[in-house]
């Protein structure tokens, strides 16, 4: 892709602005058409796209001009000149630009940090229809950042954003719910490297006629890469077809999705049905769920909700979260609220965003608790849905990190963090703590810790310890080491829980902030070993020290008696 520097973008915009003659001032249809052309070009030829955006920016169509100015700012970003384009776009009433200005204002880009001004920008953006601005307002209201703490206000805004996410998620595109990369756990994971590894694995599997490995490579590709155009579906489809030839029947279910949803091929419901049928007995319920969708919507087969429910229920019994959601939705429509809620709750526990939204609505309507308690239950559910689609800047941040532009990655994460994404807050904090960037945002650790980031909580506990505030450190480490939260069961939890447990053991051994107790110390040392086996040898050596100390103490006492 040809990239255009910010100075060129400014020049193009200035020329377009100075030449508002009959050549450029056209009707709304022309402006909309040129804007569409520019949007199509921007990812392959940003130079020509920028010229078209500059042309549209000079036209009399205010909406198109505002969108073009925002696009010019997006192309220039993170150069400081981007702020000028965003301000011009915001002045024309474009909510996306207003929201971007809110984020830049909140973190202090182009001006000192001003959270109150950011809230005003986001209020106008939310009124203009920007649901991400609503998400930011919900986050601020939930934690009292620049606005009064209010669960009711947070509920209003998070529910709005969650509803938008649900409405935008009807495409069934693969990779739709990709989780953002956590640098704390996956800093060495490069998406490009992952892709090449998959290609290597698939090539080796094809040579060995290993259908299972081909199938896994294809499904991994679809999950990680999230194809966006037809050409990107060619590779995983070829792997799945080869896997099926090699006897891996599970591949038929995913091939069925290609034809059911038009992933890089013309939609063919009959072929999808045939492929799903091939994999109908494969564990996991993927094919059963696909058949359920065809019958539910009458795609290639007669519409029959009962048949669909039967397929969904069989898939749900095999743990398929999407099938659980559809069973819950059908039962809810049939007024079987109690049973519906159980299925929706099960799908919610599996991380299914659409089920989480539906379950939150059920809880909100049927809760027997007073509103404050209900609000406390429901807001985290809507927040989870609001954040399920990730953020466009996540991919840009990861790309910047892997090409060594750590300052840009840090900036991207800080912007996304203003919408309340915990992984963005933690990633920005990690870049600071590991020394990748010199700028330190002092707010990140407390904000991330307030949302439950174990990494941030560990850093705050370490800060208490290093200051000699042992009582505060002891309390903070104890929360981390003894917590039963889900996050402590993730693959990277050992990086947080084990150090906290070891520090607790040391503090109990030395009597720092608590009476000295070897038994308590040993309990926490054992906890550290339980979480991270590599702690076993150092801790065993450490505890052997006790035997030596006791031996020398007895020896010294004996010598003293002899004297």
TrEMBL record:
Keywords: Signal. It holds the Pfam family Sel1. SUPFAM superfamilies: HCP-like. GO terms for biological process: ERAD pathway. GO terms for cellular component: endoplasmic reticulum membrane. Residues 1-18 form the signal peptide. Belongs to the sel-1 family. This is Secreted protein. The lineage of its organism: Eukaryota, Sar, Stramenopiles, Oomycota, Saprolegniomycetes.
């Amino acid at each position: 892709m040809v990239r255009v520097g910010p100075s060129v973008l400014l020049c193009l915009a200035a020329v377009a602005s100075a030449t508002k003659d009959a050549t450029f001032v056209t009707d709304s249809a022309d402006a909309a058409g040129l804007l569409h052309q520019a949007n199509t070009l921007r990812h392959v030829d940003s130079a020509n796209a920028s010229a078209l955006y500059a042309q549209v920016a000079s036209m009399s169509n205010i909406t198109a001009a505002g969108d073009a100015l925002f696009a010019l700012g997006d192309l220039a970003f993170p150069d400081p000149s981007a702020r000028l384009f965003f301000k011009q776009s915001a002045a024309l009433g474009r909510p996306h630009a207003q929201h971007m200005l809110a984020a830049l204002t909140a973190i202090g880009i182009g001006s000192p940090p001003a959270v109150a001004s950011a809230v005003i920008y986001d209020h106008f953006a939310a009124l203009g229809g920007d649901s991400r601005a609503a998400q930011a307002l919900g986050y601020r209201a939930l934690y009292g950042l620049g606005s009064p703490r209010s669960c009711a206000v947070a509920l209003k805004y998070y529910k709005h954003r969650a509803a938008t996410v649900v409405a935008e998620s009807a495409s069934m595109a693969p990779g739709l719910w990709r989780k953002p990369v956590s640098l704390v756990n996956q800093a060495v994971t490069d998406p490009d490297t992952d892709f090449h590894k998959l290609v290597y694995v698939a090539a080796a599997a094809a040579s060995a006629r290993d259908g299972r490995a081909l199938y896994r490579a294809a499904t991994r590709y679809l999950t990680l890469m999230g194809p966006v155009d037809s050409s990107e579906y060619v590779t995983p489809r070829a792997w799945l077809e080869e896997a099926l030839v090699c006897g891996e029947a599970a591949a038929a279910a995913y091939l069925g999705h290609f034809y059911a949803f038009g992933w890089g091929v013309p939609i063919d419901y009959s072929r999808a049905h045939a492929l799903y049928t091939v994999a109908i007995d494969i564990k996991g319920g993927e094919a059963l769920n696909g058949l359920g969708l065809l019958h539910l919507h009458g795609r290639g087969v007669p519409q029959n909700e009962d048949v669909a429910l039967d397929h969904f229920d069989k898939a749900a019994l095999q743990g398929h979260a999407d099938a659980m959601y559809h069973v819950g939705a059908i039962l809810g429509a049939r007024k079987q609220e109690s049973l519906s809620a159980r299925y929706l709750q099960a799908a919610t526990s599996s991380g299914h965003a659409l089920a989480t939204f539906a379950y939150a609505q059920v809880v909100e309507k049927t809760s027997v608790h007073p509103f404050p308690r209900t609000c406390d239950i429901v807001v985290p559910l809507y927040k989870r849905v609001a954040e399920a689609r990730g953020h466009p800047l996540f991919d840009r941040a990861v790309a910047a990190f892997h090409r060594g532009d750590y300052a840009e990655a840090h900036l991207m994460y800080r912007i996304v963090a203003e919408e309340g994404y915990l992984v963005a807050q933690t990633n920005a904090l990690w870049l600071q703590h590991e020394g990748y960037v010199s700028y330190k945002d002092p707010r990140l650790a407390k904000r991330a810790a307030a949302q439950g980031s174990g990494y941030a909580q560990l850093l705050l506990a370490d800060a208490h310890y290093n200051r000699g505030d042992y009582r505060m450190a002891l309390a903070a480490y104890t929360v981390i080491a003894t917590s039963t939260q889900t996050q402590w069961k993730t693959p990277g939890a050992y990086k947080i829980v084990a150090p906290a447990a070891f520090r607790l053991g040391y503090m109990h051994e030395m009597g720092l902030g608590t009476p000295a107790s070897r038994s308590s110390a040993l309990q926490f040392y054992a906890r550290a070993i339980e979480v991270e086996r590599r702690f076993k040898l150092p801790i065993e050596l450490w505890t052997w020290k006790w035997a030596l100390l006791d031996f020398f103490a007895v020896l010294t006492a004996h010598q003293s008696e002899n004297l």
